Amino acid sequence: MFDYDVVIIGGGPAGLTAGLYASRARLNTVLFEGMMMGGQTASTEMVENYPGFTEPLAGSSMGPLFEAQAKKFGLEVRQFQQATRIIPKNPGFEIILSPDGQVSAKTVIVATGTQWATLGIPGEQEMKGAGVSYCATCDGAFYRDLDIAVIGGGNAAIEESLFLTRFARKVYIIHRRDALRAEKIIQERAFANEKIEFVLNHVPLRIVGDSEVKGVEIKQVKTGEERLLAVSGVFIYVGMRGKSELLEGLTSMDDRGFIPAGEDTITDCPGLFAAGDIRQKPLRQIVTAVADGAVAAVQAEKFIEANF
Ligand code: NAP
Hints:
- Helix 1 packs parallel to helix 2.
- Strands 1, 2, 5, 6, 7, 8 and 19 form a 7-stranded mixed sheet that branches. A 5-stranded parallel sheet has the order 10-17-11-12-13, covered by helices on one side.
- Helix 1 links the parallel strand 1 and strand 2.
- The radius of gyration is 21 Å and the shape is elongated.
- It is 23% helix and 30% strand.
- By secondary structure, the protein is of the alpha/beta class.
- It folds into 2 domains: 180 residues, FAD/NAD(P)-binding domain, CATH 3.50.50; 119 residues, FAD/NAD(P)-binding domain (3-Layer(bba) Sandwich), CATH 3.50.50.
- Bound molecules: NADP nicotinamide-adenine-dinucleotide phosphate (NAP).
- The site of NADP nicotinamide-adenine-dinucleotide phosphate has 21 residues, from helix 4.
């Protein structure tokens, strides 16, 4: 009656781990991924905090490894196919796909992850792709021997700034407070890097340029003093938002698009589970994403046993 026991949406660490566990539970499972396998790891240069590996892992190697392992146990993976709608059928769900097609399933695990938050300042949208970037791995090499600015003080901002020093002449880190949010070990590396200059207690007001970025106007939050920092590129790392458009009307979410599912990954839509960065959680890391994936698969199995 149903095409699948479990449909997984999203091919990052959470989705692929859900696929591994669901397949090992002998559930008929398919995973849809519209873009690269591995989610955010695909654009992370090196991962050095995944337990069990003494040498850093290339982020881009992780998705294919997770995928190969899950497929070994029977997971069906459909890459470059995106779920555009989830329709509850009570029982089960119908999942509408892009570019075309649809499938039915007893349960759905949503592991769509996050997208970068935007600042919403003048010039940001207008010069996106022309000097404004959210991906150092993708765009860093365009800034060889140029001066650039990174906005933010979290892990992403500081790690990506360190990566950008390979190309840029100088990297200004503009942060709104005088203390960084990033892990201490990452902070230490940034403080020791001669190419990095911290511009603390400053907020960006406007990205200046026309067809390309010429600078960023910044304001000292304590004195109110404004000035122009001449840079050729601005990388924005001011946090994440849940990629949860697909779930609007299906389950509740907070104002940043995160799903208030507990550690059991259960949402308020029966049979629908939220795993990985999309879920409200205190720490978004690969290790917490894979844990969610495993839990979601086990919860899906229990749900099927109880309801079908
Ligand atoms: P984050 O930890 O939430 O940090 C966001 C930073 O942006 C904070 O320093 C915040 O300032 C600043 N910020 C937020 N809104 C701002 C605004 N409107 N104007 C100016 N500054 C603003 O986010 P993240 O660094 O993107 O990391 C997101 C998650 O991914 C975290 O769980 C992180 O551990 C994980 N992660 C990412 C990477 C990576 O992508 N390379 C690596 C490791 C872990 P305040 O500090 O003042 O709030």
